[in-house]
Amino acid sequence: PYYVGINQDLFLEASLHSSDPLLKLFLHTCVASPTRHNSTTGVYTIVKDGCVKDPTYAEFYSPHRHTLRFKFNAFQFIRSNPVVYLQCELVVCRAFDYSSRCYQGCVKRSKREASS
Description:
The chain has 116 residues and is mainly beta.
């Protein structure tokens, strides 16, 4: 566990351990949940489909393509449950492959029209 006070910035770093210098990391989705086993209902979304949802989220420069650095403001879900579990999905791409998911950035999915 990592302990941080409410409203303090929480700094994170994700690294890909590979000898290939031409790999790039992309933060696709990152959610916080009050329980370790639930990543769908009752979650707080920080990043979804590469789109930032939390206004306190910020990404920081990294000298390596295979390392991501970011932060957001710490919070708690319910007063009786001060524990927050993070679950983040990262995408690994080839550097300079501009057709890859890593270079598409935020992808807003359009809503489908319901048929009659």
